[in-house]
Amino acid sequence: MESRRDRLRAATVREISETARRILVEQGPEAVTLRAIAREMGMTAPALYRYFDSHGELLRHVVGDIFTELTGELHDAIHQVTPGDMSGKFLAVSRQFRRWALSHPREYGLLFGAPVRGRATDQERADFAEECARRFGWTFMNLFLELWRKKPFPIPADDEIDPVLRPQLRRYRDEIGVELPLGVIQQFLKCWIRLQGGVSLEAFGHLDFSLDDAEPMFELMLREVSGTLGLTYSPPEHHPSDRAGRSEG
């Protein structure tokens, strides 16, 4: 049974993480310092080292918490779709990923901008952000696995894949521990690069030079990706936050 001391420690860690995130959103990543967090919480900066060994470890904990939140929202979007509707699942999770990114630009930047560096003496803590990121990634991979089992889509044979890519795809497949043709792995990465790349360009403001509203371009990408996977594209229903601006940026 968890002791009172453990509960108090967990509550303090949660408050530190929430405070760091609030500073991130309100003031930007450069403002997330141990001194600023301690000041917000009425603590001294050295006191924070009882909970985190370094500034980098604290940021990695925040990254893990945010990945967990995002993964939960993606799963919620999937569960609102009829279980057998693979097209609906892919569209729902892709749209929710974009919606969350545009509503949380600074959190998105922390997750998908420059990697957060930092090592901890406690291996469990050091791996926290990576484990949360893996659970996020498996949200998309599991959809690909389910689709491949139910309705295999066209893929190239191994000898048709670029010889420079083949060993890299094989290594990645071994790392994630799935038994899939290399062509499926290649298709998964192609789709992910298009989805995450397009969302990042929009979330970071790199489409502003040409587009005031990038949603139609995003939907065009979804239509094309759906076709390559043998899925049926359907336009989105109106959602109040679909066209979210960058008011939090």
Automatic annotation (TrEMBL):
UniProt-recorded Gene Ontology molecular function terms: DNA-binding transcription factor activity; transcription cis-regulatory region binding
DNA-binding region: 33-52
UniProt xrefs under PANTHER family: HTH-TYPE TRANSCRIPTIONAL REGULATOR RUTR (PTHR30055), HTH-TYPE TRANSCRIPTIONAL REGULATOR RV1816 (PTHR30055:SF243)
Organism: Actinomadura spongiicola
InterPro entries: Homeodomain-like_sf, HTH-type_TetR-like_transc_reg, HTH_TetR, MT1864/Rv1816-like_C, Tet_transcr_reg_TetR-rel_C_sf
Protein name: TetR/AcrR family transcriptional regulator
Domain of life where this protein originates: Bacteria
Keywords for the protein's UniProt record, in alphabetical order: DNA-binding, Transcription, Transcription regulation
Pfam families in alphabetical order: TetR_C_33 (PF13305), TetR_N (PF00440)
Domain HTH tetR-type: 10-70
Keyword Transcription regulation: yes
